[in-house]
Amino acid sequence: MSKKNRTSSATPSQSDLAPAPAPWWRLVSVALVTGAARHIGALLAGLAVTWRQHD
Fold first, then answer.
1. Which of 1, 2, 16, 50 could lock 12 by a disulfide, CB 3.0 to 4.6 Å apart?
2. How many helices (H) and strands (E) does the chain have?
3. What angle do CA 11, 15, 27 make, to 5 degrees?
4. If you ran DSSP here, which 8-state letter would residue 11 be given?
5. Residues 20, 46: Cα–Cα separation, whole Å
6. Where is region (Disordered) located (predicted)?
7. Helix, strand, coil % (nearest 5) of the chain?
8. pTM (two decimals)
9. What CA–CA distance (Å, rounded) separates 30 from 36?
């Protein structure tokens, strides 16, 4: 019977050490979308309060 060469799983490979950092443009776009969503949410909440107090 022949033995197969197997790599040890005790040493992590290069891809297992850390995920690749996100590109700067992706971080900027996520920040812009998050900021826009928060502003829209605040505007909608303000409109709801104003409309509720108007009655």
1. 16
2. 2, 0
3. 145
4. S
5. 40
6. 1-20
7. 65, 0, 35
8. 0.53
9. 10
